[in-house]
Recover the amino acids of this structure.
């Protein structure tokens, strides 16, 4: 007489569910797992059949997880973090050095103006650590584990993340260093046109402020980043709004007025609440929290 045994979910099953929940689509889940989307589809269908329950609702927008899928993904995430912590314990050398890869996401402005200058001391203290830097204007998801740490300028940091407020990012109008030529008493605003990242960052505080208070000003140069605004100003192409930290060590930029309160944005260093026990992430997070300075 055959006795039907109850189906037991395996670690590989949980890995697939977690990848789909994080990726949002079968194709993205496949990319994360190193297989094609059809393989993920078959694995999910087989798992749903064995469970006798639906895990994902398919739509044009992607695969929407059911409560069961979310529950399984949450547990899979815990297992993943425990494994990472265990590997860190095994790999940690007796001399206290930490190994592993930490993924950090931010913007190019914050990366070049604030973060890179403080990474050298971390590299000296922890030479075995590897850091992957994603400097794009699109925020990677810490919840989906696209990144381990994020440095973001935001007035509303996500409630589900652990954060440290580094300080306020102050913004002011800057122009190029005076070249000594005759200006006949004209101000920078009279002599120069504007440089701004309107199309690339339409909701940036500097863009919103200028469009609100100076709607008749049309920037002659539209660039893709705040870093490009700084370089264009330094080359004499115009005036523009810049964060003070980006110009503090430059002698080719001149601050033309007081910081603009409306453009001020808090800078936050963020991580997932469960990552504090992972040595490699905790080490990088603590170093940045201690050394990042806006003034």
């Amino acid at each position: 007489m055959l006795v039907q045994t109850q189906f037991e979910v395996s670690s590989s099953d949980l890995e697939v569910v977690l990848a789909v929940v994080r990726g949002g689509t079968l194709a993205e889940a496949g990319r994360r797992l190193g297989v094609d989307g059809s393989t993920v589809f078959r694995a999910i269908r087989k798992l749903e059949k064995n469970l006798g329950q639906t895990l994902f609702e398919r739509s044009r927008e992607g695969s929407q997880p059911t409560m069961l899928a979310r529950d399984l993904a949450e547990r899979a995430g815990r297992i993943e973090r425990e494994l990472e912590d265990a590997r860190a314990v095994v790999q940690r050398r007796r001399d206290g050095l930490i190994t592993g890869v930490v993924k950090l996401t931010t913007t190019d402005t914050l990366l070049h103006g604030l973060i890179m200058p403080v990474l050298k001391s971390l590299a000296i203290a922890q030479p075995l650590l590897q850091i992957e830097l994603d400097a794009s204007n699109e925020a990677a998801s810490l919840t989906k584990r696209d990144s381990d740490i994020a440095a973001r300028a935001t007035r509303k940091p996500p409630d589900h993340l652990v954060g440290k407020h580094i300080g306020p990012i102050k913004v002011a109008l800057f122009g190029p260093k005076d070249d000594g030529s005759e200006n006949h008493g004209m101000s920078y605003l009279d002599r120069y046109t504007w440089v701004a990242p309107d199309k690339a960052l339409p909701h940036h505080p500097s863009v919103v402020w200028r469009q609100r208070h100076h709607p008749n000003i049309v920037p002659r140069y539209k660039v893709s980043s705040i870093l490009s605004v700084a370089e264009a100003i330094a080359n004499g192409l115009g005036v523009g709004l810049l964060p003070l930290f980006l110009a503090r060590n430059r002698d080719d930029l001149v601050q033309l007025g007081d910081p603009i309160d409306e453009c001020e944005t808090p800078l936050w260093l963020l991580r997932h609440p469960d990552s504090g026990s992972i040595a490699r992430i905790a080490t990088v997070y603590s170093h940045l929290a201690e050394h990042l300075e806006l003034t």
Notes: The longest strand covers residues 162-169.
